Structures are given as structure tokens and as C-alpha cells.
Amino acid sequence: MPNEEKFVEAIVDKSVDFSGWYVDVVVKAQLADYGPVKGFMIIRPYGYGLWERMQALLDARFKATGHQNAYFPLLIPESFLAREAEHVAGFAPQVAWVTQGGDEKLEERLAIRPTSEAIIGPMYAKWIDSWRDLPVLINQWCSVLRWEKLTRPFLRTTEFLWQEGHTVHRTEEEAEAEALRMLEVYRDFIETELAIPVIAGRKSEQERFAGALRTYTVEALMADGRALQAGTSHNLGQHFAKVFGITFQDEDGQRKFAYQTSWGVSTRLIGAVVMVHGDDAGLILPPKIAPIQTIVVPIWRKEAERAAVQEAIAQVEAALQGRVRVQSDWSEHTPGWKFNEWELKGVPVRLEVGPRDVAAGQAVVVRRDTRRKEFVPLAELPARLEALLAEIQQNLFAKALAFREANTHTVDSFEEFKAIMEGQRGFIHAHWCGQTSCELAIKEQTGATLRCIPLHQTPEDGQCILCGGKSRERVLFARAY
């Protein structure tokens, strides 16, 4: 196998072609592949293993905050969707329609869900009658379909997997608290489990979800200086309740419209993990979500050596059971090929066990993030690996945070703003007058969008970066995916 050692040379250099590098890593690390229909991706087992880990960790958080899972239909009658004009207008260009079932043309078109407010709302109207029925705290794990013109695996695909929470409350204050609570769930999940720092904030009126009262977001900075909207949470107010007739009899005997929220994250988070942590050799996975946390590579030359190596590795696997997600690679490839393969797949830790290691009662431990090597006695492996995985998780977050801080700029002139967007890019904190006309003009002239109005910031008087109008706070701009 003479060319095995050059396995990863087919990956484009990250600093030369970031977009090409991203696609190469996604495909060659076997996260996903292209489906036969444009915009539809096939998530391969390794990529789906990542999603399963994310799903389990998020689902535990949802249940801990009192939410339950349910499932609603994929197809939405056009008459249901048409009841909410602003919502429909927001999604109309992306909606796919079913017009025929079997050999019969349908009397009414059916939309393949772009999101589920229009199918969930009528059911809530049916189920809710009294204040005693509230709050309703439901989450759904499913796929949605939005007919995208420009697609990229995980980041923007026609069909994608996600979760969408839909809750109902007595008061606007309760709905607002829920929307912010779930935003905090997302922030904590993304920072703690994915090791990606995010900025939480409120979207502008231009960027808010169609039909929402307020939209909140967590924004992350990718390694190419572009922003990624990592998750959103919406206070829907009474808008959809009035459209779909979601009312309840309150304690005072009056019939009132309910207040709602919706919130969601999707498989684009896998794309975020690739772009934030990956390097020229491929993926670097945070240990908490890695399907395999430790890969064991056996090394032997003679068949007589294999038995002793195999016995030692069996003991290692038994000792790590339930403590570390471990897998051994007994394939016929060379050790060098295996090193490259598992580096490409971003496994946090590699163990090398050969005849000399067996004789010394140790293993060679190599961490993916720094490639630092150490020799660890076999008896100490479980404790050392647990500590090492925690170190790697913390290091990845610290590195991503340092990158974000180094690429976050506070500016007071539009010339400086434009210069940054034409060069290194990144996040920009700048004053904005609150007018949509200025927001759109900034986007037209620089390609940067207003990502959010950060929460919990100290008020600061200033002048709009574009028109010079009064401003009380800085907002966050960036070019985005």
C-alpha cells in the first residue's frame, strides 16, 4: 500500500480555499455525501453519530426544563398555511408542494413543512380550553424542507434535521421568560458541549422570524471570519394564537388568547463544529460529542507479536468500558494510514499499542488538538484519558474564544467598518440608529448583516455608523452563512 501515507493530501489547504476545505472535510471524513437531488444530503453513520450525541445532550436539557417530545405531520394543507399571511410570505419562495397522491390529483395542495407553526397551531386550539391546560411545553425532532437555491452540506441544505420547540403560555411575561430560557439552554449547550463560544442577542425587526414578536439568536464566529446563526428562539406573542384561535378561559372567567414561543437548532451545528475546530488534517471533535473519543491503533510486525498486543488491547477496552467511548482499528491498513484516517475524522485521542509498549506495560497516547504525545501506564489509562478528554474540551473552547476575541472589532467610522469587511472580516461592534434603511444600506455596501443586538450590554451613547443618528448601544455586524 505505497500511497497510504498520502491519504489526506487530497484535502484543500484551509488557508487557501476555506470553502473547498470545508466540503473536502465533510465528504472525506465521511460525515455526509451528496444525494441524487440537488440540495439533499445523505448523512453517513459517522456524521449521524455526531447528531445523535448532540440530540441526546440537548434532549436531556429539554426534559430537565419540563418539555416533552411529540410528533406532528410532515404535510400541511395550503389552507392552514394561508391563514397567516406574514408567515407565508416569509417562507413562500422556499415551500415545496405535493399536488398528487398516487394516481389522483389532490383537491388541495399540501406543503412539505418548512416549519410547523401552521400545523401545530390548529392542534393547540383543539387541545387547550382552560388556564389549567397551560403551559404547553412540546418539542419535536424532525426534518423540514426549504427549497434553497444555494446549498452547502450541513450549513444550508434543502432538507435538514432539527428540533423545534412550540410552547403556549398564559401571559406575555411567561412567554418572554420561556424564549430567553431556551436561548440560554442553547448558549450553554453550544459552549459546553460543542466548545464554541457564542454571543446571545435579539434580532432586528428586519431579521426577526416572520410572525414573531421578538426573535433571539446565538451567533458564532467561524474560522474564516464569517458568522453563523447557531440557534434561534422566538417570542411569538399572540400573533399565531389569534390566527389559529388558540384561546383559554382564565381564572377570572374571561376567554383570552394565549401567548406562544418557538425555538430551534439544526444539523448546521455539525457544520459549525467542522469550521470552528478543524485544521488542515481534517476534523477536530470536542470529546463530549465525539462518537469515538479514543481510537486504539495496534502495531505489530510478526504474527507472534499480534497475540500479545491483542491481549493488552482487550484489557484496555475492558478497563475503559463505560468511561470512555473507545474503538480499536484492526483493519489491514498500515499504522501510518490509520493515523491519518483517524486524524481526518477528528477522534480526540489516539492510543498506540505495540510489542514494546506491551513489554513496558504502557500505551502511547496522542491528543488530536495539539498532537502532543505521552506514555501512560496501562493501569492508569482510564483516569488519565478522562482527564485528558476534559483538557481537550477546555482547550478547544479556549482556542475558539481567543480566535473570536482576536477577530472582534469595535469601530466608530464607516471607513474602518468597510476596511475590516474587505479584509480579515470577523465580528464588528458598532453603533446603529435603529432604522431599517441604514441596516439595509450597510448590508448593500459591505455584505455585512446585523447579526444581533447583544443582551446584557451596558448602554453607551453614540452615533450610527452610517447616518450619524443617535444610538444608545452597539450592535453586532458580520458577513454570515
The CATH superfamily name of the largest domain is Bira Bifunctional Protein, Domain 2
Shape: globular
Spatial order of the strands in the main sheet? 3-7-8-14-11-10-9-22-25-21-20
Tell me, what is the CATH class of the largest domain?
Answer: Alpha Beta
Uncertain regions spanning at least 5 consecutive residues? 1-5
Describe the structure.
With 481 residues, this protein is of the alpha+beta class. The protein has three domains: 13-277, 2-Layer Sandwich (BirA Bifunctional Protein, domain 2), CATH 3.30.930.10; 294-386, Rossmann fold (3-Layer(aba) Sandwich), CATH 3.40.50.800; 408-478, Translation Initiation Factor IF3 (2-Layer Sandwich), CATH 3.30.110. It is 35% helix and 27% strand. The protein contains 14 helices and 25 strands. The protein has helices at residues 18-28, 45-64, 78-81, 85-91, 117-127, 172-192, 239-244, 268-277, 303-320, 335-344, 355-360, 381-406, 414-422, 436-446, and strands at residues 32-34, 41-43, 68-69, 75-77, 96-101, 104-112, 136-145, 159-169, 199-202, 214-221, 227-237, 247-249, 255-257, 259-266, 294-298, 326-328, 349-353, 362-367, 373-377, 408-410, 427-431, 449-454, 462-463, 470-471, 474-478. The strands form six sheets. Strands 3-7-8-14-11-10-9-22-25-21-20 form an eleven-stranded mixed sheet, sandwiched between helices. The protein has a five-stranded mixed sheet with strand order 16-15-17-18-19, with helices on both faces. A hairpin with a 6-residue loop joins strand 23 (462-463) and strand 24. The longest helix has 26 residues, at 381-406. Residues 1-5 have low confidence and may be disordered.
